Hints:
- The protein is mostly helical.
- Among the domains are: 42-77, no CATH class; 87-134, no CATH class.
- It has helices spanning 8-11, 27-38, 46-65, 79-106, 114-124, 126-129.
- The longest helix is centred in the middle third of the chain and has 28 residues, at 79-106.
- 1% of the residues are buried.
Amino acid sequence: MPRAKQNPKSSEKKVTAVKKRKTKPGSVARKEVAIYSKTTTPLLSKRPFRRIVMKHLVKHFEKLTGMNCEPGKDIRIQMSALEAMQISTEDFVQRLIQHAMDNVRHFKRQRLRVVDIEHIYRLKFPSIVGGTNPKSEPRTTKNSVEGRPVTK
């Protein structure tokens, strides 16, 4: 009796695609925060940070003196001073973002936006941004003339 031919497709094992696990929102970010908080190395690379600092130093030096200067020849900065600036800059940015995230949670939102960081920056540093400090402004009344407070 002749043998029946098998269908070649039926003899192959069926391979099912494994679905990629979907993580909950924020869990990856929490893991990254835990990883970066344990490290003591700077998050920014040294050379790009040095380039930015030197660019600003040259700009301010030229503005103050009116002379052209070259980084490395006319302006030099010690590595220890640059490292201290980098650490303090990263700490400042980290605290700014932390305050902005607290603000986001207060308004029961999930995402941090540029507006949140700008708002915190305006609250923390009103003299730098050009805003006004509410404590230093004189109080005005209904009877004040041209925005000047009425004195008794």
